[in-house]
Amino acid sequence: MLYNKYKPVFLDDYKIHLNIIPKLKNICKKDISNILVYGPKGSGKLTLVKSLLNTYYKTDIQLKTKLVKINSKELLFKESKYYFEIVLDNYYNKKKFEELLSYLCSSSDINNKFKLIIIKNIEYISSESLRIIKYFIEKKYNNIRFIFITSNIANINSFFKGFFLLLRVPYPNKDELYNFVLPIYDMNKSKIKSIIQTNNNLTSLFSLLEINSINNYICPYKTITNKFIKLIISKKINNILKIRELLYTIMSKNYNLKEICLNILKQILNSECNKKKEIIELYTKYDNTNQSFKNIIHIETLLINIIKLYNI
Question: How many CA atoms lie within 13 A of 202 on its CB side?
Fold first, then answer.
């Protein structure tokens, strides 16, 4: 995606959220404490947190996905030399999370002054998980710090609000957004303004900008994209197995699954389909959740749901 090329790495790279950046720079002047970052979905909370940590550690931190087995259970998370990252959702097994949390807190993979754990969507934790986190916050502050991210602060236990530095991240200013995206996307200025004015959610906004900008370059996966389109528009539910086989075939060749998915979406939206709004909503949901599971699973789910829409 074009946006990834221009995505802020350090706090000084930011062209949006300019009212928040000075607060984050002040945080970097001392040790990172426990932080609770809250704001509406798609306001850019996780990106801000990562830029904060890149600035604090003075490097572009690279994360890698790691899978560990504990008590015969597979536990998935991301790690770097500086911090761990967990993304929760409705499907995340609560018991697995508790075991993963205990594993990370006892891990020696991070040898900095303190161990830092980012947990996105903290509102999904169970009461037992809350008890475990409380223990580490109260007893292990010198060794373990947390950054929680939530889009629903009303559901956050008051304990955290008392122990954590609170940082609110609202939707970015529209003028700042316009000035940021204008040099990125080769599109009509009025079209860009229209997309920005009707979309607060950054994930949805950049997805729409990507979709509309695809007209300006040649798709490197045209043949594969056309195969998917034929399977989708044929309106046959039994094509799901064929889609799954095709997905695993292209994954084995290290093709860019997300770019293929984006081109599929663009072709559908340029067709006579009467479910365009619903399909865009499906894609936005996929784009919001693909961090927590393997990409291919969410792409398959997206394409299956698009087939279902065609059959309504």
Answer: 26
DSSP assignment of 208-232, as one string?
HHHHHHGGGS--TTHHHHHHHHHHH
pLDDT at 286 over 80: no
* CA nearest to 51, candidates 10, 4, 83: 10
Residues 185, 2 contacting (CB under 8 angstroms) = yes
Confidence (pLDDT) at 204: 79
Sheet with 144-150: list strands edge to edge.
64-70, 73-79, 83-87, 115-120, 144-150, 35-38, 165-168
Q: What is the pLDDT of residues 192-225, one digit of tens each?
A: 898 899 888 888 788 778 777 755 555 557 788 8
Contact 168, 38 (CB under 8 A): yes
Q: Which of 66, 57, 37 is nearest to 49 (CA)?
A: 37
Give CA torsion, residues 261, 267, 269, 275, to 10 deg: -70
pLDDT tens sequence across 6-58? 889 999 999 999 999 999 999 998 888 999 999 998 899 999 999 999 999 99
Burial of 204 (0-12, 13-18, 19+ CB in 10 A): buried
Domains and CATH numbers, the chain: 2-168 (3.40.50.300), 174-310 (no CATH)
Is the separation of the CB atoms in 74 and 53 below 8 Å?
Answer: no
pLDDT at 291 over 50: no
In whole angstroms, how far apart are CA 307 and each of 46, 119, 206, 268, 278?
A: 32, 34, 24, 11, 12
